[in-house]
């Protein structure tokens, strides 16, 4: 029987946390170490045990591995985090999206992805990580208590607005700007947007933006055209404006308050972006 340990806490106390590797579980633990799954379920363990010829059920394996400190509990029932040996103890890995990963494994039909500021940070647009990670759910999606620590915004976007990144559905640059245009109240870092608006606008796919805006109110189209123009993507902004449904403004980007910047070409009153336009981007 192998024992892995580490000294933790106050060095003078000489408290050591040991994790045992029983021979009967060694093949499964080796598989976990090699694969490093983002999250673990009894089904995953069951399949691994069968493949490795270990005569133990997934549920039994999960119970034993939890007791020994190799699996850590999550808020999503029946899903655990694997704590590999290089952590030298039953320590969480610090993945801010671990509960989202667990929820998506437990509920594969769940239409939830990473969006807004969180998507911008993961895609290297924003330099500041949001204090609360942002998830975006299709309208009508049930709320899960396990995801209550995330800031959730409900807005339905086509699948083209997301792309896989770090094994998660993360809004693309087009999806980020579309979400801001449709639900600007879901966005929370207007000062930061001024720093990366030009970068995100340059990466927008016009056809996908039109798909994301389809069926939306004229205000969403106007805000998208304004943001694209503000970010220097003039051709894309014009294409959006040309296909926009008719409607009378003014259309607001941000709270309705005095002192906003009015853009005549889109009929948008901007109370949040122009004031933080640190890059001095012009229309």
Helix tally equals: 10
Biggest sheet overview: 3 strands, antiparallel
Q: How much beta, percentage-wise?
A: 15-25%
Strand order within the widest beta sheet: 3-5-4
- The overall pLDDT average reads 91
Structural class: alpha+beta
Distance between the termini: 69 Å
Radius of gyration: 24 Å
Number of strands: 13
The backbone outline, from C-alpha atoms, is elongated
Helicity, in percent?
Answer: 25-40%
The oligomerization state is: single chain
Q: Report the uncertain regions.
A: 5-16, 278-283
Order of helices and strands: EEHEHHEEHEHEEEEHHHHHEEE
Structure notes:
The chain is built from ten helices and 13 strands. The protein has 283 residues and is of the alpha+beta class. The strands form five sheets. Strands 3-5-4 form a three-stranded antiparallel sheet, sandwiched between helices.
Summary keywords:
alpha+beta, 10 helices, 3-stranded mixed β-sheet, 283 residues
